[in-house]
Amino acid sequence: MRIVSSGCEASAATEATADPSVAAPASAGTELMTYREALRLAMRQEMQRDPRVFVMGEEVGVFDGSYKVTAGLLDEFGPDRVRDTPISEEGFVGAGVGAAMLGERPIVEIMTLNFLLVAMDQVVNHAAKIGAMFGGEVRCPLVIRTPNGAGNQLTAQHSQSFDAWFAGTPGLKVVSPANPADAKGLLKAAIRDDDPVLVIENLPIYKEKGEVDVDPELITPIGLAAVAREGSDLTLISHSFATVRALKVAEQLEATQGVSVEVVDLRSLRPLDVETVAASVAKTNRALCVEEGWPTYGVTAELAARIQLACFDDLDAPVERLGMAEVPLPYAKELELAAMPTEDRIAAAVLRTLDLAR
Known about the structure:
- The protein is an alpha/beta fold.
- The protein folds into 2 domains: 2-219, Thiamin diphosphate (ThDP)-binding fold, Pyr/PP domains (Rossmann fold); 226-353, Rossmann fold, CATH 3.40.50.
- The chain has 12 helices and 17 strands.
- Helix 9 packs across helix 10.
């Protein structure tokens, strides 16, 4: 197994605890692919590697998945390992929990994160607690894949980001990749994990392209953030599509204002890598936390509390937060955009945190 750590590759043998002096296998090279193609590659490789891995969900087989992430897997692996389910999230998530308890490694696709609310009891009261309640004798190696995100005029019930709801649940790991390379690496890590992992994808990122290492043994470790861009004036902490926006803002502000913004991509929400965040804030002395969800009781609220505790003596300004407007998202495009943490709003928040706002 090869492990990618904070944007750099680290050697590992078959187990993460192996002798670090043992060199990793040579990389199989990189390919340019979309986020959805990277997810598909991860599933294909893990299904080839482990016969216990199978995919289930609404329209994942014959229809190739609602967002074409599972395209071609039915033809390659057959209906026993790519299973179309009824429109009953509580039922098939529960079936996934049961299969995982009996030793299988199911990947359950939910059409959007909004629909996972229907199966909240299965996720929070069952999958997340099985390992602890059975004293570790029974585990639940379940993966749930689902996209969130706004900006597509899907209105209030289909545009929400409940990342913080699930990340607040002990026993459940939550990851949210922002680029194709991490989409592949984190999904592979999730499939190999012995505990339940929620992989939160993002609708607007599905079409984004990036270089992806196709080595079937390369994973991105869960619980490790990445410094996506070096900077010196302010640390911008984000995840998922907010990281895509943050990187664009950082480039724009350096070109137009001479402001150097460091971007930390969380990648994993639970466990949360506070050490990487704190090291960056200690260097820049200012922090802005951005999320696509509502900021009240959100991911940015947790980040602000952790940063204040870890970096109190390093901060030159209060920790700033930015998220979605706290309203049910409107359908009208102008109102939808006004509610979202767009690049313009992020740039304004950066300048405000640096006392450069006009």
